[in-house]
């Protein structure tokens, strides 16, 4: 029996490298705005997972977060810099998994760039709170699952395929190497 991928009438796999991988990472992460930030990924124990708001993604696919210096997350990163970020941009598309290396800094210029007044909930002294740190995740590789023509077209193709008994999936997926 053929696999579902071999039954596809359209191309459904595309690996991306370099700038094109970075651009897709930025595009998909921007749609999600938040992710599951996973630490302790190399210990053989259950991952430590927490939701995090992405403050910025650059064109190279690097992520920036603000975090408290005394947080468990920062302690985890100091012990093991390897992290995994998991995104879901919509219920049926824009899925992204990114593996990378995290670094922590107290770069005041970057903190000011990333600051939003709502963050005062966690950093009560504002953007000058001494506990604020910047976490930069340097993306190394990842994997994405998306659709090629938007959710409406993907739904129509899926529905038509179900009626005809054919695989008419509008999905695309692939490896990302930054």
How would you describe what is shown here?
With 178 residues, the protein is of the alpha+beta class. It has a single domain (16-177), classed as Pnp Oxidase, Chain A (Roll), CATH 2.30.110. It is 25% helix and 35% strand. The chain contains four helices and nine strands. The chain has helices at residues 18-32, 72-79, 108-114, 151-164, and strands at 16-17, 34-39, 48-53, 56-57, 63-68, 82-88, 95-105, 132-147, 171-177. Strands 1, 2, 3, 4, 5, 6, 7, 8 and 9 form a nine-stranded mixed beta sheet that branches. Strand 2 and strand 3 form a beta hairpin. 25% of the residues are buried. The model is unreliable at 151-162 (pLDDT under 50).
Protein topology:
Elements: E1 16-17, H1 18-32, E2 34-39, E3 48-53, E4 56-57, E5 63-68, H2 72-79, E6 82-88, E7 95-105, H3 108-114, E8 132-147, H4 151-164, E9 171-177
Parallel strand pairs: 1-9
Antiparallel strand pairs: 2-3, 2-6, 4-5, 5-8, 6-7, 7-8, 8-9
């Amino acid at each position: 029996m053929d696999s579902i991928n071999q039954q596809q009438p359209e191309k459904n796999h595309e690996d991306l490298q370099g700038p094109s991988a970075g651009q897709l990472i930025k595009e998909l992460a921007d749609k999600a705005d938040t992710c599951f930030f996973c630490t302790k990924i190399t210990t053989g124990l259950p991952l430590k997972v927490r939701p995090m708001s992405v403050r910025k993604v650059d064109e190279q696919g690097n992520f920036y977060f603000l975090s408290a210096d005394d947080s468990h997350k920062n302690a985890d990163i100091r012990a093991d810099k390897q992290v995994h970020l998991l995104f879901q941009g919509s219920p049926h598309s824009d899925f992204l998994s990114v593996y990378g290396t995290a670094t922590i800094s107290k770069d005041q210029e970057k903190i000011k760039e990333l600051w939003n007044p709502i963050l005062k909930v966690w950093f009560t002294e504002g953007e000058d709170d001494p506990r604020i740190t910047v976490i930069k995740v340097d993306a190394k590789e990842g994997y994405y699952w998306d659709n090629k023509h938007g959710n409406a077209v993907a739904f129509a193709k899926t529905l038509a395929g179900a009626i005809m008994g054919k695989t008419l999936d509008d999905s695309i997926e692939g490896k990302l190497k930054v």
